[in-house]
Amino acid sequence: MSVPALKVRDKTKLGTERPRLHKVILVNDDYTPREFVVAVLKAEFRMNQDQAYRVMMTAHRRGTCVVSVYPKDVAETKASRATEAGRKAGYPLQFTSEPEE
Ligand code: TYC
């Protein structure tokens, strides 16, 4: 008589979820010039003129706009660098990062 094979649940897959990505968010303000925001988006987030202009205008009209998503450390570094670029030029431009839903 053959012994029924025991079904062993393969739990390895449970540990293979990819880490959640984090959003970088552009926040509107009343002082930073539009062209400056566009220049920072192009320099820090590798956007072309058209993409950068659309993101800037969305934040301008709605208050915020998601710029892109990255692994946590990359999102945090890019948000600080971009915020720092504004600060150095004397503008209150803010980029934040938060986990994606
Ligand atoms: N609201 C700014 C202006 O009218 C432009 C601006 C857009 C600033 C988006 C920040 O995230 C921003 N000069």
Concise account of the structure shown:
The chain has 101 residues and is of the alpha+beta class.
Helix/strand layout:
Elements: E1 22-27, H1 34-45, H2 49-62, E2 64-70, H3 72-88, E3 94-99
Antiparallel strand pairs: 1-2, 1-3
Helix pairs in contact: 1-2, 1-3
Bound molecules: L-tyrosinamide.
Residues 26-30, 32-34, 37, 56, 59-60, 93 line the site of L-tyrosinamide.
Give short descriptive properties of this protein:
single chain, Ribosomal Protein L30, Chain: A, 101 residues, three-stranded antiparallel sheet, 3 helices, binds L-tyrosinamide
Plain-language structure description:
By secondary structure, the chain is of the alpha+beta class. The chain has a single domain, classed as Ribosomal protein L7/L12, C-terminal domain/Adaptor protein ClpS (Ribosomal Protein L30, Chain: A, 2-Layer Sandwich). The chain has 3 helices and 3 strands. Strands 2-1-3 form a 3-stranded antiparallel sheet. Bound molecules: L-tyrosinamide. The site of L-tyrosinamide has 13 residues, from strand 1, helix 1 and helix 2.
* Tally of alpha and pi helices: 3
| Element order: H for helix, E for strand | EHHEHE
Radius of gyration, whole Å: 21 Å
Class by SSE composition = alpha+beta
Summed over residues and divided by their number, the pLDDT gives a mean of 91
- Tell me the count of domains: 1
State the separation between the terminal residues, measured CA to CA.
53 Å
Text of the CATH class: Alpha Beta
CATH architecture classification: 2-Layer Sandwich
Number of strands: 3
What small molecules does the structure contain?
L-tyrosinamide
| CATH homologous superfamily heading | Ribosomal protein L7/L12, C-terminal domain/Adaptor protein ClpS
Read across the widest sheet, the strand sequence of neighbours is 2-1-3
- CATH topology-level fold name: Ribosomal Protein L30, Chain: A
Specify the helix fraction band.
Answer: 40-55%
Shape: elongated
Largest sheet: 3 strands, antiparallel
